[in-house]
Every structure is written in C-alpha cells, then in structure tokens.
Amino acid sequence: MSLGQRTFSLKSDSIFACGRPGNGSLTHLLALSFLAMLLMATFSACSRPLTVEQQIIATIREMEARIENGEPRQFIGHVSENFSGQKGQLNRQQLRGLVVYQLNRHQRLHAQLFPISVNETGEETASAKFRALITGGPGWIPDQGQLYDFETLWRYQGGEWKLTNANWNPVPLDEIL
Q: For the chain, which residues make up each domain, given as ranges?
C-alpha cells in the first residue's frame, strides 16, 4: 500500500517495515523507538505513586524473596541500623546471624505470607501485621514448618522503608485447627 512517498509492508523477517524503499530497517527502528518513548511517557504520566501501604508490602515481599533465594545480605539491607526485635532482645547483627543460621540449617526456606495489614503511625512511620508460614528442609519438600504472627514497625529512611522493629510469636495449634 502506498501513501505518497511512504510504503508500508509486512515482511516475514520483521514485524513492520516503514519508510522509503530500501531504508525500511532504519526507519522501522526509529519508529519503534519513538513508539516506545511515547508509551513510556504515557504510562509514567498516568501512574500514581505507590501508597505507603503498597511500598511497605512491596518491601516485605522483597525481603521474603531474598530469604527464599538464600540472600541474607540483601535481606538485611531492608533492616534499619537501629533495629530492635523480639522485645529488645535482638539487634540488627543478631537478626543477620539468625537469618544466616536458618539458611545454613535448611537448604531451602520458604515463607507464605498471609494478608499484610499496614497502618501509617506518623509522617514517616508505619506498622505492619501479618501471619507467615515458614517452612524449611533439605529439598523441595519441607520437613519443618511453623506459623507465626508478626508485628513490625517501619521508618522511611534515605528514600526507602526500613524495618526498625519486629516481634514474632508462634501461632498456637488450637488457633490453627
């Protein structure tokens, strides 16, 4: 099909070729680049910033993934330098040690998080509560597991949400059944 001096054709070796005959690949590349930039501008203009709740949930999910991938350094990167856990009995270094210990003890750790409830408690602080089923074992089928209730506190530091406090308790069996 011809429109003035421009030709449009469908070729088997490319999705679309447009432009003057003999110059289709360069024009095609430029057209696709322009289209990609236009789409990115459109979507970025339409997207809203994440809410505090969405940001914290995303951080918790990222931490979950880091544990499951056996990456304690990346996990602890989401933990504040002044972290306090288990009612003041655990600092950041001790938490890191606990994570490394569990990863060494179990070849595979998995966490299934149940609904995460986030509440903003101040301008740059929030809390999150959730249940997590933590399982581990030497292979794909876990041989150990426990359901825990987590209560966490978060602070916005350096452009990201950092875990400042966490307490967790095993869920009694009678609550599960």
A: 2-46, 52-176
Secondary structure of residue 109 in the 3-state scheme: strand
Longest dimension (CA), the chain: 78
Say how far apart CA 167 and CA 111 lie, in whole Å.
16
Backbone phi and psi for residue 114, each to the nearest 5 degrees, phi listed first: -100, 170
pTM of the model: 0.71
pLDDT in tens, 3-29: 444 443 334 343 333 444 444 544 444
CA 136/CA 134 separation, integer angstroms: 7
Helical segments of 47-120, H only: 52-68, 72-76, 92-105
Q: In CATH, which of 3.40.50.1370, 1.10.357.10, 3.40.50.720, 3.10.450.50 is domain 52-176?
A: 3.10.450.50
Contact 79, 92 (CB under 8 A): yes
Return the number of other C-beta atoms located less than 10 Å from residue 154's C-beta.
27
Q: Which of 142, 146, 116, 109 is nearest to 130 (CA)?
A: 116
